[in-house]
Amino acid sequence: MKKKAPVCPKILFRLLITVLFAWQATVITQAYTAKSYPISLPKGTIEGTLDNGLHYIILPNDLPKHDVEIRLVMRVGSLMETDRQKGSAHFLEHSAFIGTKHFPKHQLIDYFERQGMKFGRDINAFTSFDRTIYWLSVPMEKGNETVMDSTLLAVRDWLDGINFDPERVKKERGVIIEELRGYSTNDDFYPLKIGKGRYAQRMPLGTETDIQHIDNHTLQTFYNQWYAPQLATVVVIGNIDAVKTVDLLRRRLSSIPRKPSMRAQIYPFDYPKGVSWQEVRDSMQTSTKFEIIVPHRTTTVNSIASAVQKQRMNLLIACLSNRLNALKTGCDVSNNWYLADKDHFVLSFSAKEKSELLHQITSTAREFRRILKNGFCPGELEIGIDSRLTHLKPDTAQHLSTDLCDDFVDYITAGDRPLRAPKDIETVRISLRKTTNRQLARLLRQLIHNLQQYRLLAYTNPCVPNETPLTVKEADQAWQIGWQQTAENYAFHPQISDEKPVDIPLCLTTKHTFDARQIANQTQYADLGVTGIKLSNGLRLLLRPTLDDEQMLFVAAFGRGGTADLTDRDYRKYHDAVSYVDMGGLEKINSDMLLTVMNQEKLSMVIGEDDYWHQILASAPVQKATELFNLIYEKMCHPGLNRTDFTEIRKAEADGMGKETLLEKLMQHDADRLINNRIDSLTGNALSRIRPMLTKNDINALDIDTLTQYYKRLFADPSQLTIILTGNFPPDKISRIAIATFARMQRPNGAFSFKDTPFASPTTTYIESFNNGNDDQTVLNYVFVGNYEPSLRNSLRLKLMRDILQDRLIRILRERENIVYSPFADLYYSGRPQQVYHFRLTISVKDANRGRADRLLKDIIDELKLHPVSVAELNKMKRSFIVTKRKALSDKAPSEWKTALTSLIRNDESLTDFNEYTRCLDTITPKDICQGFADDLQWDKKILLIKSKNNDNP
Question: In angstroms, rounded to a whole number, what is the distance separating the alpha carbons of residues 465 and 853?
């Protein structure tokens, strides 16, 4: 037997080290694997793939409980188009709504509108570079297999049954061209940010030339090639039976033939190396603006590891912002997803003079170099981490089905998963706490490397006289100067708050005694879930508890009386009274102390006055109801006075009289704003704007005691006051606190009495033109004004008329004549005190079609005056109203309930009628609608406001 050779100590040591490294690697791998598991999808999600390759996601969700959200997500967009097919992906999306195998012509839209849906809101689609998404928000009770089956049949048709009728395709060209004419990216620097590659060459809408070249054969070829089940995902979320829904989906969609093996090609979204520069001249700007945009690869958040990486990038941005703000460099830092696989890391600068701007760039570069070298200071990084952790908390709230659909679209198209589950969040938090300077330096170093490889420079030139514009060379030199400078070690001085909790003043904490005798009457509106309480002092309380996850109480307190109720003399005397008095805090608490208390106790309150109403909006945690109600009471009845601030602000306002502000300058160049203001002045919505101009003497004559007296006469009168309470609160407890607090209010001496005088509507035609339209497009704004008797029934009648007008504009101007893309009919009305309504019809047409559009609109209105709409059409509209109300006013919509009840009271509509909404709606007949058109839309009394560079009237 051979003897074993002795082991050399050096070899033994190396073996030991190797074993240790292997063990360490195993531990690291296990830890990394633990962090790399996928982020959880929402609980209850069913995900699968049919044999033909179609991917589906099903999720039961009862918020809202009467609707089901359905999406068809095609991983197909304009990037897939050949040169000959440009614009086809978007044109194909249009074709999906104008005729399919089982829904010829417009039957698809008609079917869904009969369910109460609206085209554009509940039935819609959009096309992007890499996706086309069709969405349906379907009113559906749980277990309604008939509607679900028909909906999935429509989805099947979109995948495998779109008809491309040559004549219909030809007509649709006009619609899409009008859409293109009205399209804007709303970003002056879009050409810079979109790059020079395939994305810039494949804009989803295409060009007018592209659209003119598309025919039914082009569309059929693109459809046959790309609309394959392997590139499709169907998402169904709502109050559904998941098992039955999967079964229905399989039965309807499994037989769609699988197409030859194919995958959507992925095109890179890249930029040219070096500097890309764009200058925008804007003489309306008062400062020079400059951005350094650094494109870099985004992080797809689909695993715990990638979520940690994303959070660390956010942490880096926060730490950079804190450092640069502390040094007052004048640089704002941000990082956001832009498009495809790219984020934009942006350094934003703004300065009055070019030299100051260059100094900001130099200072920022120097600081970046110092951070790369030394990292962040002890305490600096920890503050950043703590700040991020405050934003990183589990989200256990129930989400709307529409929001969940948006999350799944991101998951399907980009791979992102929403980070919400407590277990996932806690794992990310643990890793984030352990973030080191070295890890942040690695991220920053990569950003700087990208900056050196390619950067986008966006320069807004304010055209300052006698100043040469900024150049690329100057900007790069300023950065290089800073980068090459050496800086001393940064001395971090954390801001230590010496603020201590303050005692809440007694006037806010006092609990008042409830007395049932303070209640004059109480009404339950069972269908609405609203309680109405009238107090003996005339104040009206409306309570609508909701089931939202936040334990918050929301208050809207409002009453009649505003600036338009004043005579010209009193308007000058009480100018801006509410704003001046508001800055004085409370009689028993000065404004600074009040702000401190409100921040500490999480109380919020804003106060305002418009033409005919004054109001207070406030909110607080439910457990702070006593403090909140006392705050509102004190603000209405016992406002404070701040004579020093009043004198200073009055002087500043007087000194500014006659000086044109930047907003006023912008207004003179914004045709849309000018048109809106003109409509407001002609329809009674802005009477205070047509007052005599205030003078410097008027401002100097203002007296704070006189303003306060007016304020109290306005706000402290309970007989004019309605208070609406919404939120997740115990109604009995909160109503008792509210009653005890506000029953103390008594009508002040000299309280106002307001007359509800109807607005005098125009008696002749008014036509005005505005410049600044598109070169070859005219925007026609037709306005019809009139008076009406306020009631819920009349409001609903006007709304039905609006929707019928919208239907006719689409059916005739868009679908039959093909001269518009998105005509719009809107309705505005004010029941109290003006008793006025106005319809606004907005039509964007090619300049050559102005006269034609005018004649067609007159024909539409004349037809509606002569012939009542059918019962079936009217019932379809009514069904839409019921669905809309049910969708908007759910048990988890405190803000929407507050808005709806406020509108109801301000328009002098009955809560009893609103409680019997369907019955009220059913009393409106086709004859009522026909008579409404005859009475309410007078062609010879129309207002026509035209936005165009060709200002000849049609």
Answer: 46
pLDDT value at residue 748? 87
| Measured distance CA(809)–CA(816) in Å, rounded | 10
Q: Are residues 242 and 122 in the same domain?
A: yes
Same-domain status, 366 and 402: yes
Say if strands 943-947 and 836-846 run parallel, antiparallel, or are unpaired. unpaired
Residue 954 lies in a domain: no
Pairing outcome for strands 232-238 and 55-60:
parallel
* CB-CB contact of 599 with 501 (8 Å): no
Q: H-type helices in 512-604, by residue range?
A: 568-573, 577-582, 591-601
Burial of 513 (0-12, 13-18, 19+ CB in 10 A): exposed
CA dihedral (305, 310, 313, 315) positive or negative: negative
Is residue 475 domain-shared with residue 547, that is, in the same domain?
Answer: no
Residue 298 sits in the same domain as residue 246: no
Residue 777, beta-bridge partner list: 846
Q: How far apart are CA 646 and CA 121, in angstroms?
A: 48
Residue that is last in its domain, among 454, 484, 514:
484
Name the DSSP class of 747: P
Task: End-to-end CA distance of the chain: give it in Å, rounded.
Answer: 114
Residue 634: which of 626, 622, 644, 646 has the closest Cα? 626
Contact between residue 371 and residue 95 where contact means Cβ atoms under 8 Å apart: no
As a whole number of angstroms, the distance between CA 472 and CA 476 comes to 6
The tokens describing 118, both together, are 């609206």
Please give the Cα distance from 145 to 140 (Å, whole number).
Answer: 9
- Position 802 in a domain: yes
User: How is the chain split among helix, strand and coil, in percent rounded to 5?
Assistant: 45, 20, 35
Q: 900: domain CATH number? A: 3.30.830.10
- Three-class SS of residue 51? coil
User: How many structural domains is the chain composed of?
Assistant: 4
DSSP string for 538-563:
S-EEEEEE---SS-EEEEEEEEE--G
DSSP structure string for 615-642? EEEEEEEGGGHHHHHHHHHHHHHSB---
Going from the first residue of the chain to its last (954 residues), give the mean pLDDT of each consecutive group of 10, the final group possibly shorter.
Answer: 40 37 40 67 97 98 93 98 98 97 95 95 96 97 90 98 96 94 92 97 96 98 96 97 97 95 81 96 90 98 97 98 96 98 98 96 97 94 95 91 97 96 96 97 97 96 91 97 92 80 95 97 98 98 91 97 93 96 95 95 97 97 98 98 95 87 68 92 78 91 97 96 98 98 93 90 94 77 98 99 97 94 96 97 93 97 98 97 94 95 98 98 98 97 91 57
**Which residue in 755, 758, 611 sits closest to 690, CA to CA?**
611
Bridge partner list, 255 = none
Strand, helix or coil for residue 68: strand
- Domain of residue 458 covers 274-484
Q: Which amino acid is at 708?
A: T
**Tokens (6 digits) for 911:** 């809560």
**Residues paired with 621 in a beta bridge:** 552
**Quick one: 452 and 512 in the same domain?**
no
Q: Are residues 51 and 92 in the same domain?
A: yes
Number of H helices, E strands in the chain: 35, 23
> CA dist 241 to 60, 62, 141, Å?
7, 11, 11
Q: Are residues 480 and 526 located together in one domain of the fold?
A: no
Helices (H), 602-747: 625-637, 643-655, 662-668, 671-683, 696-700, 704-715, 731-742
Q: What SS3 state is found at 78?
A: helix
Say how far apart CA 530 and CA 542 lie, in whole Å. Answer: 7
Count Cβ neighbours within 10 Å for each residue of 674-708 and write b for 16 or more, e otherwise.
bbbebbbebbbbbbeeeeeebeeebbeebebeebb
Q: Which of 225, 254, 283 is the last residue of a domain?
A: 254
Is 24 part of any domain?
no
Looking up tokens 């699988």, which residue turns up?
258
Both 191 and 332 in one domain: the answer is no
Cα–Cα distance, 472 to 313 (Å, whole number): 28
